[in-house]
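User: Fold this; tokens only.

Assistant: Input:
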Amino acid sequence: MTQTTSTEEQPQPQAHILPQPYILALDIGTSSVRALLFDATGNAVPHVLSQHTYTLNTSSDGEVSVDPDMLVELISKTIGEALAAAGPLASQIGAVATDTFWHSLMGVDTSDCAVMPLLTWEDTRPRTAAAELRNQLDEATVHERTGARPSGFWDVLFVVSRWLPAPAC
């Protein structure tokens, strides 16, 4: 389900009012995607906002994931609406700033197409396999080598590393 913050029926911003270049800010969160336009002094440009909400996929076995194709479509729609609301200012965008939800993991094929849902750091399904890995790995050595401390998502990364083939080099 998506909810749109309508940018229609709002006055178009005037290019000569605000300093340039403009910055398109894209926030991809765990409950919504939104895009806003900021001027060079960091002030939000009035009436240039698009936001759509979505729901994470969850299950009783610990799944917390996102359909990547749905998310890409929602991001594209959100950006398009913000650019349309920006009107002539869109051609003066000099930078894009992004912010996304914390750790995530998604497998892709050789064409960069998703082959699985995007798993968020909150997904706990591999906890049994992670416990097995903890018994096989020395956590201090892993931390020294990788800089990663054990956490819920650390477990996911190490479980997935067992599924992936070793590099050829």
